[in-house]
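>> received
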Amino acid sequence: MKEGRQASSGFNVYSYKNRYKDLRIAYGRNLVKYYQHCLNYGIREGRIATGSTTITDGISVYNGVDYGAVYNFQYYINKYGDLKRTFGNDDIAALEHFVKYGMREGRQASAEFQVQSYYNRYVDLRRAYKNNLPSHYTHYVRYGKRECRNATGMSVMQGYATVYNGVDYSAIYDYNYYVGRYADIKKAFRNDDEKVLQHFVNYGMKEGRQGKVSFNVQYYKTNYRDLQKAYGGNLKDYYMHYLRYGIRERRVADRRI
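>> returned
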């Protein structure tokens, strides 16, 4: 029984375990308990003990928290081959992996919840939780679903930071454009829009990085001799000139060279 061996055509312990969620919650991986339950109660209750090769109703409660709003066992293991190979039909182990590792890794475990979409859509949550991804999952479990927040379909960040040290850089900076153009920035800051903006202000402009499709610093520099005389090779000054004066003067800065 400990080994899960079948000794009757009418009872398969894995089928019994797969079929009944209440028993998995009660007995976990203790196979002997399933045999004993069938003997003591299951037969009398008319429970079926054969024919279930997969779990259709996976456990979603872990340490008293129901993750059903962001987790579905079959979705999780079918989406990730490594998990299916590792856990098979063990929904208890799969849920434990999701809570301990999967949320931290940003894995999707339900068609109704994409953590990156949730992160992108809601600036209030980004400010509260930063890149602590498990907090975004648990917020949806505790509040977001009840608040009818949308947790899918947002591939670009909304409401990203544009103000740094009291200066609004939105005329020359677009978070989605910046991280989309520079893979090293996206890799370094893991979607932290405040840190990405800080990089642009403190380093990106000096390096001549383009922060928005409508402003190309090399074109701006080449096109205006008065600015060349004033700023020489100090690229950051060209960005700041456009921000403070160039827009108002209707200077052109979006032609690529």
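>> DSSP finds 15 helices and four strands in the chain.
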